[in-house]
Write a structure and sequence with these properties.
alpha+beta, Arc Repressor Mutant, subunit A, 4-stranded mixed beta sheet, 11 helices
Amino acid sequence: MGELRSFLFPVFASAIDEGRVGIPAPRGARNVKPRIVIRLFDRLSVRGGDQELLQRSSKNARELLCYLIVGRRSSVPRESLAALIAGKHSVKKSKKALRQALWHLRRGLVIHGVKCVDRVLTFGDGWVQFTPDGNVRVDILEFEQAVDRSIGTEDGRSVDTKGLRDALEVYRGGLLQGWYQEWCLEERERLRQLYLRALDALIADCEFNHEVSAGVAYAGQALHADPARECTHRALMRLYCLAGDRASAIHQYERCKEALREELDVEPDGETRALEREIRAGKHPVAPAVRPPVPKWGSPRRNKF
C-alpha cells in the first residue's frame, strides 16, 4: 500500500498542476470571486486575479470594452457599437464584426476556466452596458471619484489633500496612449483636465500653507502635462516669492512667455503681466489669507486663481 501511495501522489499532483483534477475549495470560499482590475491610464490592462486577460482577444473586442467603460453611465445600442468598430462597412458586415468582438470578449474574460463577462457587462434587448460588480476595479473610475470626493464643495475651497494625492497616484499617464479614436481623444482630454484640476487644488493648498517645495513640485507636474498653463506659471511665480526668490519668479515669467508663444502664439494676459510688474517692483505677493477656490474647467488662459 505504501508503494502504491508513493506512486499515485506525484501522478495526482501533476494532474492538479495541469488542471485535469480539481481540489475542492474550502468551505465558504467557493463564492469568492477573483478581483478584476482594469487599467486604462497609459496602456490597457485587464487582470483577473493573477491572470492577464484579453491578451489574445481582437483589437475590436478591446476597443469595445474600453468604449463601454467610458460610456458607462448609460446603455449603448448594438447598432452604435457595430458602427463604432466596423466604420463605413455595410450593416451586415458591421453586425458580424460586433458579434465577433463580443465573442472575443466572452472568450477572453475567463479566469482559471470560469467565465466572468457577466461581472462587467450586461446584455439587454438590443443594447450592452458596462455594469461592474463590487469586486471589479477600474482606474479611471477610481481617479474621477477620488478627485470629486476630495474637492468637496461647490466653491472648491474644501479640499482633502490626501485624497488628491491618492488620485494622482492612480493617474499613470494619458488615457489609452496610442489610441486616436475620437471618443478616446475626448475622454483623454477630459481626464487630463481633471488631473490638472487636482494639481491646481494641491498647488493652492501649498501656497496657502507656505509649503513652497511641495507646491513647486506639483506645479512642475502640471506644466509637464500642459506647458502653456498660465495659471500654473503665476502660481509658481508667487511660490518663488514666498520663498524670497525674486529672481526665480521673474525667470518663471519669461518661461511663461516662451511657452505661450510656442504653444498658443499669444502673449501673457493682463493678470500675469501685472504680477510680473509687482515682483520687479519689489512688491512680493503674500500667501492668501483665505484658501483660494480651485479653478473650474477651462483653457489654460481662463483658469484663474
